[in-house]
Amino acid sequence: MSQSAFIAEPFALPFDKKTTALVMIDMQRDFVEPAGFGEALGNDVSLVRVAIQPCKQVLEAARKAGLLVVHTREGHRPDLTDCPPAKLTRGGKTFIGSKGPMGRILVRGEAGHDLIPELYPIAGEPVIDKPGKGAFYQTDLHLILQNRGIKTLIVCGVTTEVCVTTTVREANDRGFECLVPADCVGSYFPEFQKASLEMIKAQGAIFGWVSNASNVIAALA
Ligand code: TIU
């Protein structure tokens, strides 16, 4: 047994490397680089870019420790048939599917939809294409985790209050224990970042644990 524990709040989280996976949420050019969906919505992407280096360090530690690594991408079919009409128009404007400097926004196969080079998947790491905010909705993520006997998830990525916590809340309902390293998740809104992290660990870890990159790296070493 390789049972160990992550230093975390509100208390330490025991884990086994064999049953732990790293889930990297939507670290796509459309959210993290200028001129993508994030910026089209009126956000400053520099606020989420601070998570890139800590994510890279955790990704490298997870690979070295032999963890299952899963990446997700939010996006849609080129004909947008999988995009709900209510999602197509935000703030009265149409962004998804429209042409931007990195191709059609949030459309699969376009440059902006791709994962950022700093965190690019390597062979053997599943990439989950998801049409929604949560990584389980209309995807085979649960099946992939279940087939590998995964019990614990380290969840990183963007944005903290949207796709990260939607995924963590549902993962908790599905029986997974979720650890969120605070410096490995990013938000365009500092106040949402703070509140989202507090919500996860409140009430005795109501739907997860919060830690940081250095604690995760130390526990995986
Ligand atoms: N807008 C925003 O904060 N996030 C998203 O639209 N998607 C993800 O969080 N990936």
Automatic annotation (TrEMBL):
Signal peptide range equals none
Isochorismatase-like domain residues: 20-206
**Class of enzymatic activity (EC top level):** hydrolase
Tell me yes or no: is Ion transport among this UniProt entry's keywords.
no
> Listed GO molecular functions?
hydrolase activity
Gene3D superfamilies, per database record: Isochorismatase-like
Q: Which UniProt keywords apply?
A: Hydrolase
Q: Supply the EC number(s).
A: 3.5.1.110
- InterPro entries, per the entry: Isochorismatase-like_dom, Isochorismatase-like_hydrls, Isochorismatase-like_sf
The protein here is known as Peroxyureidoacrylate/ureidoacrylate amidohydrolase RutB
> Source taxonomy lineage?
Bacteria, Pseudomonadati, Pseudomonadota, Betaproteobacteria, Neisseriales
- In the UniProt record, the gene name given for this protein reads rutB
